[in-house]
Amino acid sequence: MVQFTFLKLFNTNCFNTFVLILLYLLFKYKLGKVMNLLLFPLIIICFIFLIYYGYKDLKFREINILPLIIFSLFSILYQGLFIFKDNLFLWKMYGLQIAISLIFVLIIYFLGRISSFAYIGEGDLYVILMISFSCGFVVLFSEIVFLIALVLMLFIPLYLFIKNLIFKNIPKYSLFKSLIIMFLGTPKDIIKINNFYTPLETLKLKDNKIIRNIDITPNFDSEKELKNIKIISRSKKIGKIWV
């Protein structure tokens, strides 16, 4: 559920979601045995939430945060009644890791407001908080999971580049521009492109000629750009663009 825009790399929500699921289970399985087996129900519920929101994000590119809020409140109540109880130290550690998560999320949010290159969807930030509320008193757990997921995302450009080489998807740009676009996306039929895609090329008409260029800057209004591309492609019979 993680939507991290870095040079308009690509929409990474789905992949980040399942990276989070994998890391969350690996970490929680080990830590759950140390802390308390009573955390297991929260692990299962959080696992279901991550899969569900991964699907919703992939399908509709938006999520309903109300269930996340309800589950977070339930996590506080559940852990307070069955795990922390009257242990002041555990409550302090839990409060500390929640406070750190809130600060972390706010920093990421404001960085995204300052620079679109560091933008992360607000729904993704809510998911980070949900993991934080449900992971007991393990300080920095949700932040570490999130950061590891982002690091693993760096392997995707390599996958895209190899895929483009195998299928001989070579753009007609300079060597430098071609290498950039081959690491960031793939060509796709324009008629099959919907609003979930972000174009990596721009099409413009000048003196009745088409001028194509790459555009790898973050674009949060891709619908407008795609509409323009489709209009030009219909009049000039252009089949594919890089997305």
List keywords for this structure.
243 residues; two-stranded antiparallel sheet; elongated
Structure characterization notes:
The chain is mostly helical and 243 residues long. It folds into 2 domains: 13-153, no CATH class; 170-242, no CATH class. The chain is built from 9 helices and 4 strands; from the N terminus they run ααααααααβββαβ. The protein has helices at residues 13-35, 40-60, 66-84, 88-114, 122-134, 141-153, 155-166, 175-184, 222-236; strands at 187-189, 201-206, 209-214, 240-242. The strands form 2 sheets. The protein has a two-stranded antiparallel ribbon. Strands 2-3 form a two-stranded antiparallel sheet. A hairpin with a 2-residue loop joins strand 2 (201-206) and strand 3. Helix 1 packs antiparallel against helix 6. The protein is elongated. Mean pLDDT is 77; it is low at 1-15.
What would a concise description of this structure say?
The chain is mostly helical.
Number of domains: 2
Strand order within the widest beta sheet: 1-4
Helix fraction bin:
55-70%
**Percent of residues in β-strands:** 5-15%
> Please, what is the average pLDDT?
77
Number of helices: 9
What gross morphology would you assign? elongated
Q: Give the biggest sheet.
A: 2 strands, antiparallel
Helices and strands in order, then pairings?
Layout: H1 13-35, H2 40-60, H3 66-84, H4 88-114, H5 122-134, H6 141-153, H7 155-166, H8 175-184, E1 187-189, E2 201-206, E3 209-214, H9 222-236, E4 240-242
Antiparallel strand pairs: 1-4, 2-3
